[in-house]
Amino acid sequence: xxxxxxxxxxxxxxxxxxxxxxxxxxxxxxxxxxxxxxxxxxxxxxxxxxxxxxxxxxxxxxxxxxxxxxxxxxxxxxxxxxxxxxxxxxxxxxxxxxxxxxxxxxxxxxxxxxxxxxxxxxxxxxxxxxxxxxxxxxxxxxxxxxxxxxxxxxxxxxxxxxxxxxxxxxxxxxxxxxxxxxxxxxxxxxxxxxxxxxxxxxxxxxxxxxxxxxxxxxxxxxxxxxxxxxxxxxxxxxxxxxxxxxxxxxxxxxxxxxxxxxxxxxxxxxxxxxxx
Length: 276
Description:
The chain has about 280 residues and is an alpha+beta fold. It has a single domain (about 10-250), classed as Creatinase/methionine aminopeptidase superfamily (Creatine Amidinohydrolase, Alpha-Beta Complex), CATH 3.90.230.10. The chain contains four helices and 14 strands. It has helices at about 10-30, 40-50, 125-140, 150-165; strands at about 75-80, 80-85, 95-105, 110-120, 165-170, 175, 185, 205-210, 210-215, 220, 230, 235-240, 240-245, 250. Strands 7-6-8-13-14 form a five-stranded antiparallel β-sheet. The protein has a three-stranded antiparallel β-sheet with strand order 1-3-4. Helix 1 (about 10-30) packs antiparallel against helix 2 (about 40-50).
């Protein structure tokens, strides 16, 4: 698949989807508390999608034959789970951290974003992991400027995260988005000279999503063939935004519309994006 370039009108459609994603993610954030199950959070998201007139781009997603379609509308990944956690009967506990990855489709346009939320009071180490991962997203977005290249985003994320003593998950990456949930280009969170490094041009839209481990970068997949956890059992965090490349500052399509740009402190095995 070649990189897609979208017009201002088309990007406005992606923004509409992105704003619904962020509104529902905020509802989910407010609902996170000790005792609530990840299935209950998924049910909340189902109701919210219906209320907004949107559909899920996660539920029913099948990356390859032989893997069951993803059963939830959110990916709910707790503690050592990095991505693709299936909502279920697990009741959140005080001190957990919960990564919620969520997407929506509106009039054929896709939006996608992720947050990691502390459950009650978490350890200082867990909070620092969240802070570093979110700052890595800010820095990656700041590098997403027309005239730069994809690896400038990757370098900004990697330099910061590894400088803070954390590890980047390498098997899973960011991706283009628009008419489909996953499009070109691949947007890794680390610099790999063997990977494509396209020029960033106005009209490109992509999801930037650092996934960070408090321990080593190795991962393993659970028996459900969806949930990915850190191989060493260390905590992991995940933040993501949908971003349009412009001739000036990056345009965060999943930023809150009623406040300052939440992602911009400064305006300045093979990787895979094949699952939600």
